Amino acid sequence: MDHRPQAWGRPRDDIYGAYDGSYLQTTGPKQNTQAPVVTGTSVVALKFKDGVVIAADNLASYGSLARFTDVKRLRVFLDTSVVGFGGDVSDMQYLDRHLNELAIDESYETDPSAPDAGALNAANLHKYLQKLMYKRRNDFDPLWNQILVAGLDSGSKPFLASVDLRGTAFSSPSLASGFGAALAQPIMRKYAATEEDAAKLSREDAVKVVQECMKVLYYRDARSMDKYSIAVVTKEGVELKEDEQLEKQSWAFAERIRGYGTQTV
Amino acid sequence: MFRNNYDNDSVTFSPQGRIFQVEYAAEAVKQGSVVVGITSKKHVVLVALKRNAEELSSYQKKIFAIDEHAGIAIAGLTSDARVLSNFMKQQCLGHRLTYGRDLPVRTLVDMIGAKAQQNTQQYGKRPYGVGLLIAGVDEQGPHLFEFQPSGMTEEMVAFAIGARSQMARTYLEKNLELFADCSREELIAHGLKALKESLVQDRELTIENTSVGVTGFSKADDGSTKVEQFKVFDGQEVNGWIESVADDKAAAEGESMEVDG
């Protein structure tokens, strides 16, 4: 017998072999999301006279790899609002399932004879998402998205607002997430710098401006794609087109770009 | 001696299929003083008769504001109503915080319905000994709901619960068609008249024993409609309404009321 107290109660190495340390936990403490993995790029949205236009391309990137080319990043809520997601795609899918659940619960509460009255509108939805995102950031387990909510408020006026992974919320006549905040916002502000300007904008013009923004983003954002979704939200409901193609591209400007790539000059 | 063996708890059915504890709780509602609720297209009104335990004591409140858009009138155990009222206040506040809107009235009522029903289904619990009339407005308009200790809830055009409430209900049934197009003031007058029907002989409505709660839609300055915050009127504030339905006045106004109808 081994008389050393340290060895008491332990399996003897000479009989059982040395202890196999690989059974011990090799991972560290539980870690929540530290960085997004599969990501969607910008979402752009613009208010007009009687609604909101919102668009996002159909690409999900894995780092710089254009991994999935048919990801729909605009989601319709209760046929009255549209939610556009930038950032982590798996968190987007989680939120999408969560919002579908919310929509089903909500439809049980509302009167089927007057489905429009009393349902959650875009302003309510945005408030809810803001609380959800802020709760998750306080749990140190954020949902890695920037979200744009487009629809109508309780007074049936156009509503557009953003919330990000920290729960920071704000609204503006035009909004763009990600790269779009730098590239698309200045273009949209030319047409709708204030609420008053946006209230003068026609639907056709707003759609044209947003399409132009998507084109500029495709020219300049290396994580973007020329296939995109665009939705128009008005009192009449949501018109969502998920398989749009960027038209009338002109890459002539690319000739003049100097300073990176394989050029030597 | 005959003794009922099936009323010891709220989870045992009698052979006749009754749950006595729940029925006793419903009896507690009938002991409470009468409360009346009426809806029109624009407003919903609660009217209540307050009681004082003795001459020297104050009158027990009967109508409570729950949130900006909703309130309740109670008949039965006030302490049980307090629990339900606190619960409803919390739910309304929580909903306002997460969604930025008023909690729809039916959703609110369903919540206390479910809460009360659970008490009739679990050993060791007892039903709430209180009935409520819940008045509120939401996007779908004004609503009045009845709540019973069994957990039953039902939407009503007009209703009365509490002691001698049958007399008030008879008045409401007789005037049912008039309510929809009533103005705010007319609706309160109908409520007070219904309440008077339930009074015992020689008793009258006074500013001490009468309570009124109102919510509804009113016209804003810019012509749009806005929600009139639920407010409870007591004491001197109800004087004008009581006078307008006083017996001598009613006799004088009897003809003009007929014309309105």
From TrEMBL, chain A:
Main location: cytoplasm
Signal peptide feature range: none
PROSITE patterns: PROTEASOME_BETA_1, PROTEASOME_BETA_2
Cell location: Cytoplasm; Nucleus
Classification via SUPFAM superfamilies: N-terminal nucleophile aminohydrolases (Ntn hydrolases)
Pfam annotation, one family: Proteasome
GO BP, sorted A to Z: proteolysis involved in protein catabolic process
Record key words, sorted: Cytoplasm, Nucleus, Proteasome
Top-rank taxon: Eukaryota
Cellular component GO terms, alphabetical: cytoplasm; nucleus; proteasome core complex, beta-subunit complex
KW GTP-binding (keyword) present: no
Function: Non-catalytic component of the proteasome.
Family assignment from sequence similarity: Belongs to the peptidase T1B family.
Designated name of the protein: Proteasome subunit beta
Protein species of origin: Cercophora scortea
From TrEMBL, chain B:
Subunit field text: The 26S proteasome consists of a 20S proteasome core and two 19S regulatory subunits.
GO (cellular component) term, any one: cytoplasm
Species name: Cercophora scortea
Compartments, record wording: Cytoplasm; Nucleus
Gene3D superfamilies noted in UniProt: Glutamine Phosphoribosylpyrophosphate, subunit 1, domain 1
Protein name: Proteasome subunit alpha type
A Pfam family the protein falls into: Proteasome
InterPro entries: Ntn_hydrolases_N, Proteasome_alpha, Proteasome_alpha-type, Proteasome_alpha1, Proteasome_asu_N, Proteasome_sua/b
Recorded family membership: Belongs to the peptidase T1A family.
Keywords: Cytoplasm, Nucleus, Proteasome
One Gene Ontology term from the biological process aspect of the record: ubiquitin-dependent protein catabolic process
Lineage: Eukaryota, Fungi, Dikarya, Ascomycota, Pezizomycotina
Proteasome alpha-type subunits domain segment(s): 6-28
Coiled coil: none
